[in-house]
DNA sequence: CAGGTGACCACTT
DNA sequence: TAAGTGGCCACCT
């Protein structure tokens, strides 16, 4: 039977996996919470991905490359400023649509097994 | 102790 | 076609 320690370990591991995927996002590209969650096998737990990024605060993780399904910068406010995330993405050569959303069609990147 | 919220997405009607 | 609802699970009040 699973011990609480293991459950806690899995949670921590979940965050670590999210960070690992985010760290693999190519420069100038973005991904969505759902794709990360699906890659981790938690398609329905996309919300937890957001918490993982929240825990990534202060870490060398490009959480600014993670946007919602519509390319909107959902976590811009939690990033330390509403414009920080957008500015960072613009620095990455990322283009925005007239709606203020990232041009997913051109910058959407999906986590794959990465046939290195 | 229990309820509500949240950096969301997918499916159903 | 669009709009609505459920679900997931951890953290906060």
Characterization of the model:
- There is one protein chain.
- The protein is mostly helical and 116 residues long.
- It has a single domain (4-113), classed as Winged helix-like DNA-binding domain superfamily/Winged helix DNA-binding domain (Arc Repressor Mutant, subunit A, Orthogonal Bundle), CATH 1.10.10.
- It contains five helices and two strands, in the order αβααβαα.
- It has helices at 4-23, 33-40, 46-55, 84-91, 104-107; strands at residues 31-32, 66-67.
- Helix 1 packs across helix 3 (46-55) and helix 2 crosses helix 3.
- The longest helix is centred in the first third of the chain and has 20 residues, at 4-23.
- The protein binds a DNA duplex (13 and 13 nucleotides) through helix 2, helix 3 and strand 2.
């Amino acid at each position: 039977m699973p011990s609480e320690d293991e459950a806690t370990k899995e949670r921590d591991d979940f965050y670590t996996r999210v960070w690992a995927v985010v760290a693999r996002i190519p420069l100038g590209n973005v991904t969505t919470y759902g794709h990360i969650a699906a890659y981790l096998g938690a398609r329905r737990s996309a919300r937890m991905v957001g918490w993982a990024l929240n825990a990534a605060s202060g870490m060398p993780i490009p959480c600014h490359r993670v946007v919602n399904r519509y390319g909107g910068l959902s976590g811009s406010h939690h990033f330390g400023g509403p414009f920080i995330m957008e500015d960072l993405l613009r620095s990455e050569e990322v283009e925005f649509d007239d709606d203020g959303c990232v041009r997913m069609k051109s910058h959407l990147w999906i986590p794959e097994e990465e046939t290195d």
